[in-house]
Amino acid sequence: MPDQAMPSLSLGSELDFNNGDATYIKILDAGLAQFTEFGLRRTTMEDVASKAGVGRATAYRRFGDKHQLIQAVILRECQYQLGLIEAHLKTLDSPRDALLEAFVLAVTRAHVHPLLQRLLSSEPEDILPLLTLQWSRVIALFRVQLASQIRRAEEAGHVKVHDADQLAELMLRLMQSLVLSPDGLMNPADEASIRDMADRYLRPWLG
Amino acid sequence: MPDQAMPSLSLGSELDFNNGDATYIKILDAGLAQFTEFGLRRTTMEDVASKAGVGRATAYRRFGDKHQLIQAVILRECQYQLGLIEAHLKTLDSPRDALLEAFVLAVTRAHVHPLLQRLLSSEPEDILPLLTLQWSRVIALFRVQLASQIRRAEEAGHVKVHDADQLAELMLRLMQSLVLSPDGLMNPADEASIRDMADRYLRPWLG
DNA sequence: TTGGTACAACGACACGGTATTTGTTCGATT
DNA sequence: AATCGAACAAATACCGTGTCGTTGTACCAA
């Protein structure tokens, strides 16, 4: 009965409980699948449990309640996507290019992310307040990640910024706007247009 | 029975109908007052009409229906606020400073605007989709205004930009984010922090 | 530790019936 | 010519009711 949802990243330290972690991950996978297909409100714990092949009580034992399960699914997905982006950046030499490419990838990937788009189109009244009025609670994870990435590049002498946290917040605000309002001159569906934008307007910020 | 709501700016050409325009403006004023105090949904046409001191039928005769009245009130308020900002900018010498100051004023004024804040707090499910998913329909007015302002400054040789429309959209996206998500390192309630931000990150865009 | 069941509490939902609001029309009034 | 006040049907919001599904917890056998 974990107090906070355990992300899949902490799996490495408990490879012994292979069986236990297996059900844990099965439930998270089932939750992601069902939430993506039917939305948060219309999927029941029964749906998730049966899809995961476990009893409903087991899901409650692992995640406490539905809301914590939702948080765990979303948190794991965020970390997974961050991991994908980070992995892709390993192929780049310049840390400056890496920061800009992270921006581009985050925007374009979010724009085609099944769960995010599902919730935006079928339950906007639930998710829009979260991604705007209360967005500081949501992006905390992303901002510290991005800010530390900026600081690392700065200490290595590759970029020069005034305030890494401020810059990270600005980049995240632009991501927020592009994802929530895709219809404009820069289109998240067109990776090239986003990359051009980042190159022209964000690169100067990196000193 | 005007097809589209007539903004107050077209008043100049019809000063003859002083009496008619007076009721027109009285209804708009009453609408603004009631919408601000009770929200869009909870104010009735009866409320607006009686507050304006006219019959309910007159309000319908002038604006068609409630939705068109709402649009007219909001449109007039947007134009009024734009006018206020433009008037304030007349006091500045540098067109470059004027553009940045317009950004600062727009953000800080929107953050304390009674109607906008009222709708954000009491009817977010109605207004958030409008200001995000369908925001391109809303900001058309602002973008052409801002882009033409940028172009004017550019033709006068005061700034040098790559694409005035693109730049205008970027500035508007940052305004959108700051207004909809005020909680962050830059706070719209603190004019100085917004001005610092504009100075540091937006000024380089102006060439 | 799991699965299955039983359970109370809660919220969503469907239903009628009522009241309000909307949008239109008309005649009287200025 | 435009306004007001009134009347009107239609649409919509509201309310009380009951039903159903879901949630979250507890228990016991495996």
From TrEMBL, chains A, B:
Positions of the HTH tetR-type domain: 21-81
GO molecular function: DNA-binding transcription factor activity; transcription cis-regulatory region binding
Tagged with keyword rRNA-binding: no
PANTHER family: HTH-TYPE TRANSCRIPTIONAL REGULATOR RUTR, HTH-TYPE TRANSCRIPTIONAL REPRESSOR RV3405C
UniProt keyword annotations, A-Z: DNA-binding
Pfam families: TetR_C_35 (PF18556), TetR_N (PF00440)
Name of the protein: TetR family transcriptional regulator
DNA-binding region location: 44-63
